[in-house]
Amino acid sequence: MGSIPRAGSNPVLGTTPPGVDVPGVAISLEAAMKQKSLWARLLYRARDLRSRALFEALARHCRGDVLDVGGWDFVLTARRYGVSFDHWTTLESSHERRLDLDEANVRVVLGDGCAMEFGDASFDTVLSIQVLEHVFEPIRMVEEVARVLRRGGHAVLLIPQTSTTHLAPDYHYNFSRYWIAEVMRRTGLEIVEHRTLGGFWSSMASHLVYFFPQVLRLPSNSDPAIRRSPLFWPLLPLMAAFAVLLLPICLLFSLGDLAEEPNNHLVVARKPT
Predict the structure, then answer these.
(1) Between the ranges 100-114, 146-160, 210-224, where is the mean pLDDT highest?
(2) Cα separation of 71 and 131, whole Å?
(3) Residue 2 pLDDT > 90
(4) Sheet holding 65-69, edge to edge
(5) Backbone angles phi, psi at 27, to 5 degrees
(6) What is the pLDDT, as a whole number, of residue 43?
(7) 42-58 as b/e, with b when 16 or more CB fall inside 10 Å?
(8) Could you tell me if 197 and 235 are in contact, meaning their C-beta atoms sit under 8 angstroms apart?
(9) Architecture of the 20-200+260-270 domain
(10) What is the dihedral of CA 17, 19, 22, 28, to 10 degrees?
(11) Strands (E), the chain
(12) Which of 25-29, 85-89, 182-186 bottoms out in mean pLDDT, i.e. has the lowest?
């Protein structure tokens, strides 16, 4: 899966000023999907299928003017699931991640999720779907989310706790429920929903799946600087067989999972009136 800069990762943006629409770099949905490798497309589909609770939360809380921080083409998925909104703004840090949508109520803006150019209280809903782990200063991004959110509005965040290396080198953190509670307190947001998605066994299953792209050193899942143990290659056939055998067992046990080690936290936070 190719490395895709996320909003807030502070890549070189050229001469285009932040906070403005990016002219002349739109790509079609078909081109956007082709930019994603087969592995990336499978992972995005798996995320959407496993995150039914996310779309249920969006159905309850998403409304009005929506800001999606680092979402690329997530607006298309949201629309497919019937999420309602008046206007949708996607904030991206890369020129290449603009969709060619002939719709007046959807736009893509170039900028930094940790230093947004939007005015205070600009949006009714702000989304951050598996973005914070790719941001070097995630607290700053949550502060910005709180700033641009209107009073009474909701922020909907999907935050990983046990993710493996992906989108490297723009991959920095995992987060506990305690970090989430503290950052919401510091930024003045009130948590109205907090659900753990997955747990110990589903996290282990996820790691077993990621074992194979890391073995193959697929782009953004590994790094040439990471060296293999001399015993890695002789043991690899046993490792692979063990991963394949253990995966269905982990998925079975995940039906009654322990939530202390979830894959993700689904958080809905409200800005007080």
Answers:
(1) 146-160
(2) 8
(3) no
(4) 20-21, 106-110, 87-92, 65-69, 123-129, 149-160, 264-270, 190-197
(5) -125, 150
(6) 64
(7) ebbeebeeebeebbebb
(8) no
(9) 3-Layer(aba) Sandwich (3.40)
(10) 150
(11) 20-21, 65-69, 87-92, 106-110, 123-129, 149-160, 190-197, 264-270
(12) 25-29
Structural element, H or E, at residue 50: helix 38-50
Pair of tokens at residue 156: 């909907």
Give the separation between CA 88 and CA 107, rounded to whole angstroms: 6
**Is 129:74 a contact under the CB 8 Å cutoff?**
yes
> How many whole angstroms separate alpha carbon 53 and alpha carbon 145?
21
| Cα–Cα distance for residue pair 177/172, rounded to 1 Å | 17
Q: How many residues does the chain have?
A: 273
Residue written as tokens 């070189």? 12
Considering Cα of 239, then 244, then 248, then 254, what sign does the dihedral take? positive
Take residue 95 and report the two structure tokens written for it.
């020129």
d(CA 157, CA 58): 10
In the chain, domain spans: 20-200+260-270
Comparing CA positions, the residue from 49, 50, 37, 79 lying closest to residue 62 is 79
